[in-house]
Every structure is written in C-alpha cells, then in structure tokens.
Amino acid sequence: MTAANVIEQHVARALTRHRGIEPLVRLVAAELPTGERGPWLKMADALATGDVAKGTAAATASMACWIPLFASGENDPRLTVRLLQTASRPPVGIASVWWLVSYPLSLAMVALAVLALVVFFVFPKFESIFSAFGVGLPLVTQIAIGLRSMIMRVWPPILVTGAVVAIAWWLAIRWSARSATAVANFTHSLARLVAAEIPTDEALALAGHAASAAGLDLASPRRPLTYAAAAALDFAPRPAAVLLDAIADCHDDRSRGRLDVTAWFFGPALIGVVGLIVSFLTLALFMPLIQLVFDLS
C-alpha cells in the first residue's frame, strides 16, 4: 500500500468517526495566529462535508493536525486534549526559534548602524573643527575616519549575508527532519498512532509524512526515526507508546536546551561587541578633544 493510499484510508476513517467535532476544530483554529489557521480550517471543512478527497488533500498538505484524529477512536475523551496539544506546539517552536535568530541579528544591526551613523555624520564634523584649530588627529581617530570607505564596501554584503544566514538557520531548526524539534514531533505523533494500534508500517508512513520524511524503515533507522524509537516499537502498543513519549520528551528537552545555550551565548557575545564598538567610537571622538585641551593649555 502506497503512502497516498494509507493517508486516504485513514482520512476516510477519521471523517466517519469524528464528523461531529467540526465546531471544536473551528474553535481551535480561531485561537491560532492567522497564518496558522489554514490547515485547521481545511480539516474542519472536510469534517463538515465528509469529503474524503478534500480531506486527503488537506492531510497530505499538513499532516500534523490530522494525527490526533487518526489516533483517536469515536467519542474518545482524549481527542480534545490531543488537538489542543498539537495546535499549541508549532507556535511555541516558531516563536523560540525566531527570537533566537532575531535577537542577536538585531544587536549586530544596531551596532553596525551606530558605527555607520557616527563615522559618516559625526566624524566629518569633528574633522573639520579640528582642522580649523590646526589640531592633528590621533591615530585612533584617523582609523575611525578611515572606516568610511570600508563600511561602504562591506555594508551591503553584511546585510545580505546576515539575512541569508538568519533564514537558513531558521529553516534548519524549524523544518529539518534531522533537528531535535522535528524528531520530537515525529516521535510524539508515532506514539499516538502506535497507542491506537495502527499497524507499524502505516504509523511510520503517517508520522513520517507529518515530519516531511518518507521511506522510513525499522531495519535501518534514520532521523527523525531514531534507533531508540525503533527499539521501542518491539514492545506491545501501549508500552511502546509510553516509551516513544519518553523518547520524544528527551528530544524536546534537547531542542529547548540548544535554544537556551545559543541564546545565552550569542546575546552576551554581541552585547560585548556593541560595547567594544561604543568604547572605540567614544575614544576616537574624545582623544582629539583631550589633545586640543592640552594644546590650548
């Protein structure tokens, strides 16, 4: 059975079992940011009409929100909690990663903007004033003034490189099937499907599609399917689901730990860089003033 057939089969079952929860799905969608409501609204439309083709297309495009339906029986009281857990997971990950990328990048841009502002607009005024008094400029001030030509050359490449690095970093952390976040989401989805006693090959296909990873094989695990998760599948469905949840929690902790470590490293490091730039500019500005005072005295 192909992956497409597996998805269609489980969508048909889900639409039969859960057609009455369409208002709940719309309520969940209404609580999400505008950009994340689309997949949930499409799922609600499919539940309202019972259209398997529409549901299959929606599930193929965005599998994650369908996993709770596939893993829950009719009138399962846990379905509401599972939908809420699934809905709340992506915004938290995106916010953390975006903050991680934007915070150090913003600091770097502020530092470069301050440097450019002072070098282009402040130093020329000081240079003309000191020339009028016949004061020779100290070496540090000459270096700062000489930065104008360098900034003109490197400013555009720095902006472009910073933007590319930020986007690549964000995509790697958020979407890479090998990232700790993707492994955690995949393993949580697999746990739900296994607990529902869905056949292992079908559970792997569905969870793998949700993590944008196809062709997963227990004989040769590759991320997001880890060796630990593959070993957990040797147990009965309920114990296997407990083990898979524990494995997913470990990867969740690793993902959060990496975000925290990176934030704690880049934040102070770039604050130090900004401090050095401000100190350099202050020294470059005040050295001629000090020299002028000594010359006048």
Total DSSP E strands: 0
Assembly status: single chain
Shape: elongated
- The value of Rg in angstroms is 28 Å
Q: Approximately how much beta-strand content do the residues carry?
A: under 5%
Furnish the topology, listing elements before pairings.
Layout: H1 3-17, H2 22-30, H3 38-49, H4 52-61, H5 67-70, H6 79-132, H7 139-175, H8 180-195, H9 200-210, H10 227-232, H11 237-296
Polypeptide structure, described:
This protein has 297 residues and is mostly helical. The protein is built from eleven helices and no strands. It has helices at residues 3-17, 22-30, 38-49, 52-61, 67-70, 79-132, 139-175, 180-195, 200-210, 227-232, 237-296. Helix 2 (22-30) runs parallel beside helix 6. The protein starts with a helix and ends with a helix. Mean pLDDT is 79; it is low at 90-97.
Give a brief outline of the structure.
With 297 residues, the chain is mostly helical.
